[in-house]
User: Fold these one by one.
Assistant:
Number 1:
Amino acid sequence: MQQANLTLAKYDGIRGQEILEIEEGENEVTVILRDNRYLFVKVVDGKLITTSVPE
């Protein structure tokens, strides 16, 4: 269970943030959050990959 907590900790900055817009691209979904934060979601080799900016 501790591994799951470490993985989810990288999302602490966006947890509870209001979603302003969702943009769907060809291979990626971008979630735009309040306070100029972004969450990029895509599938690579069958795995869900996410990147948050700022982290």
Number 2:
Amino acid sequence: MTDLFATMIEKIEAHPTYAPAMRTAVEQKRSLALDYHNHGNAESWCVSISAMVKDPTRLLQIGVPDLEELVHIKGIGTSAEQCLPFCRAFGRALSEHYKLEEPPTPFLNGQPVADEAEG
């Protein structure tokens, strides 16, 4: 695990709300997403670690799953092109640390991103 990701995970684990939110999601084996996004500033990017919400009231709605934000980290990247490489690498680090059954799904500005490395 790179020093950057180790430091990010250490900060998550030390945070009073992020740490218990992550632990609960992992214990409940919820599917996670990494939403790489900006807040209207194309040069400053953030990442949210979110749990994907399966809402039974939305059975007939097809499309993007709702995301329940667990962690929000600012100042992670500088362009949309960094989304997949970052999400792949950070997802591996999170999977290793939290012993996830599957890596988080990458999202870009709230929309799922097809990971061409998966085929």
Number 3:
Amino acid sequence: MGGRTVFSRVSGGIVLDSFSIVSFFTGLLAVLPAGLLLLVSSSGPRSAAAASAVSVVWGVTVLLFVSRFAQLGIAGDSEGGLFSESAGPWSGTVLVAVRLLFLWVLWAIPFVAWAFLKGEPQAPAGFPGMGLALLGVPRIPILLAIWAGLGMVLSFAFVAVAAAAPGFGDLFSPGLWRELFSGRFGELFVAIAGTYGPPVSVLVVFFPLLVALVPLNPKGALTGTIPFFIYAVGMVLSLQGKLCGAYAAASVVEEGEVSESFAVAPPAEAYAAAAAPAAPVPVHTAAPGFESPAPVFADPKQLHAAWRSRLSAGDLEGALEAAREAIPAGLAKKEPKLAAEMYRRHLDRLPELGLDRTELDLLADQLLRDGDVAAAAWTFSQALDTEPTDPKAFKGLLRVAEHHLEKAKEPLEAIRVYRYLLERAPASPFADHARDLLGAAERRAARPATPQG
């Protein structure tokens, strides 16, 4: 039913990690906003507005949670929780959620149009209908019924596209859709089964106990369903997000062609040069089977002050040593601007900073937000040179190219970035998408300049 990529291996770990107490707390956080609103509204007179408000709050919560977990899936963090930093800033999560909502709105347009245009509950002439008229359900045209059935598959495809798209306009890129889904529908159904299978398996264990409890204590049995419901909600939201994110990030290569380890290779100097090799950037990984304890970080502001003091005194070696400790601390304790400032100062000695791939991604994101496009592009290129299948680095450079094209109005610079991506990572899942963007940038660059009047 399609090709096999590294997703087939990654998905098992994601499913396994969902069988933890974290899923319960995820579900609790998910149902809390809508649940509290429902509790408050139930104390007064019932109204359609209150029910609509609960539905809206629940829908927004689901969009944000699934989008957040999709970012974790793309980052390769199968164990990460809702507030894990490897998913990046929440502003990015909101953008993914908005893109996901837009795709759902497009999917719902045929149903809205049918509801407005139909004059009778019966199906329009010429279209055989289906439905249960005895239950008062209006007959639905067969084409709409098929479209509704596809909603299950599309709900997963939409999450993958919304998380993988570098920008809003990329939702309509044929190249992006082709790279994500061409020959991979079997894996998409693996994501669907992996999302709903674990809650069903828990229910199979839980249901006999519930049935046995009903004759003894009906209220207790009913109360016992609440923790299960919360646990199942957490599992479904985290599984759908992470599996769709991992699906989007998987390289389109046969299983076994890609190593799961983060191999070290000599990176290119920068995307603009794209030819002369730079010094290798070592990536620190734990030995197989060894789980290192979580590091304890000092106050990043104090470390930053010490770094600045040494830098002002001309102690470059001391400043570098302070930066080695201060940059990870700044990233871990929500001070990315301080971390980016120190990182920017020591770019020429990047290998000595000892940063891992996740830290480099976070720093590059912050540099791009700060407007330091050149430093962000160079940082993304280091990750891509080390691992050409790194989806975050590829998407980061797509954002760099978009900045050159849309904000700086420099299509030639954007063309250089796209060409670098296609040269460095031709097997990336987003390579065809980059080719589409390259063609658009070349057409824009070929247009005569508009005279300023």
Number 4:
Amino acid sequence: MLALMPVWVPVLDTVMAPQTETGVPVEVGEGVQVLIPSAVSCQGSDRLEVYPGAVLAEPGSVVNVTIKVFFKHAQPCPYNDWSVSYEASGDIEVVGDDGGKLADAKTYVRELSVRVDGNGTLTVVYDYGTCPEGDKEVVTVDFYVGSAPGGLTPVTTTPALTETSTEESEVYVNVSGSVVSVDPYGGTLIIDDKIIYFRGEFYDPSTGAYLEKEQVLASLSPGDYVTVVCKVTGAGKYMAEKVVLSNGTVLTKG
């Protein structure tokens, strides 16, 4: 596990202008196909985003991974002990790390190079330290060699780093774990202590059919392990956008 403590720049929060959205193309590496553009976590006041979120790579290829933290408050802030760390597992190895830096007072950027010899996972953690506005943001990046899980196909566009302030951007969170309870007619699913709301239809690429939320939820049972990509509303509700089933099938909101 490697970590980097923050490097500070003397800019006050009160004079920060709002960031505007821009697209910065991500060069992920030769022999690499992006399956999921980014992995995002925003449980507290800040947002952790890692690009790409999942890839299919040729053995021996090197994948460029970008870690970004979008801060609610400009740095330095009164709680200056936050940190960013990562851990590689499986047949991958981090062979390059630029150490990370503040690109501006509200954005931290860190670039990694990951050699892929087989399937593996990179877990990235942003720790708030003593900041009372959050605990940890955790995301995982999956690396596949040979073939991807069913339902995951390469994206057709180059992923981009989204330069937006946390307050202005849409926030997405990946929630993974075992189903605690499910209510098909109420349209809710509980994973750990999180209530996830389902609305509308979801497309199943394995059958080409659109499923009503009741059908999706009725197919799940307590104990099933799933990943749900959720949009977080202004009221803090988790709304399901994608569901990754245990067999790898990805159901996408229509």
